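# step 3/5: fold
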Amino acid sequence: MKNRKNVLFIVLDQFRADCLAGAFGNHVPLPNLRGFMAEAATFNNHVSVTSPCGPARASLLTGQYAMNHRSVRNGTPLPHDKPNLAGETRKAGYLPLLFGYTDTTMDPRVFDAGDPVLHSYEQVMPGFVEALEMRLEESWPWRAHLEAKGYKVPGYPEIFRPAGGEPDSPALYRAEDSDTAFLTDRVISDLLARPKGWFGHVTYIRPHPPFVAPEPYNRMVDPAGLPAAKTGAEGDSEHPYLAPARAREPIASTVIGFPDLEPTAENIAMIRAIYLGLAAEVDHHFGRILAALKSAGLYEDTILVVSGDHGEMLGDYGLWGKHSYHDAAFRVPLIIRDPGRNAMAGKAFNLPSESVDVAPTLLDMIGADVPDTMDGVSLVPLLEGEPPGDWRRYSYSELEFGNPLHPSLPQKALGLTSDQSSLAVIRDERYNLVHFNGGLPPLLFDMAGEGEARDISREPGSQDIVLRMTRAMLDHRMTHGEGRFSRTMVTAKGVIRK
């Protein structure tokens, strides 16, 4: 296909949306992402439909809710025949290059039991060409780079132990040799050498833990100036999920080498500052990519999408990581620039969008068909300034917090099987409803009131809201059941697809 645009799809791991606009907006320097927002369309009400990394990326790339692809944990296989972004872009003539990782667990039905791909969840989504391996626990090209530079490189996770006596001591590597810098160097050198019409999927591990940053990013953000972690309302009874969830991932789990780290106000602020420093480092290198595209005359020929896979609790409500029902675990940025669709450049949308929309949008922008299996919808009409009148009223996310082999702390504490250890969140313009499997009570938050600080599900007048949103969640699941043949009929005239 001649004169086709380049495509660059960048995912930032564990990047909270409120780093750009919200609680941390005035506390972390992100000049390049914010500058890009001025030239692109931003989706302010964007959520990941699931967590953690493997399931979130399965949804991003297949366009399916977790209830359909069922790769619901890191290590749970993704069925090999799920259509995905890589395979569909190949049909359009692109070679989808991966710089980083997709954390895809392979389908054991199509590999011999001894195949190495069945010994790690950090595998590559079928269809992608792994142009650069940058997996969290492996990253052999980066480690080789460090060795060549003279570093003594320990194994994972010790490679991410701070080189000093404090959690915010610098990493053992210099900023120019960090994982983020190395990935960026390789992306720029590779893509700029290729003929026009490339497709690059770039995945930054940062600001994902372990939280360790090279100088100056390790202490770039002043902890003393940061907003305090959110807490629940005084006297509000806690949901039984919270205590075991806190025990599962304490503050000490975010850094290497400090097992006795306590969740004091000072330590919480310090860890949040390291996280924001890592976000600032990613922003710096994102700026390098923008500068390289512009210098090479490629910027106006490149569709560029920036998003996250899921969020990070950062001590809010005493929680760390992303195994949560709170907004901080699911709300991520989505910024899209298509040089051929500039009507909404610099504008922001507040309509609800979901991570399952990204793959259909990219396929739509390159003129490729969107498979019936994809639950998301293309955002192209919004980019062209013509939002459909029947746009979704709700956003939806789900989380599996159990494990069939090694029961998780919440699973054991709540007396659930792994199949019962799940929750789902549905959000409208005002309320968030959290439904738990296994007979646990629901939660209802009034986001126009005290938000997630207070559960109002049992307060007078709330039962009608709980019922309305529970019905909406049931409708959602019934509407979005696996759609492979939902629009296909076998008839006397043969197979017909509407």
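# step 4/5: annotate
The domain at 6-421 is CATH 3.40.720.10 (Alkaline Phosphatase, subunit A).
# step 5/5: archive (pending)
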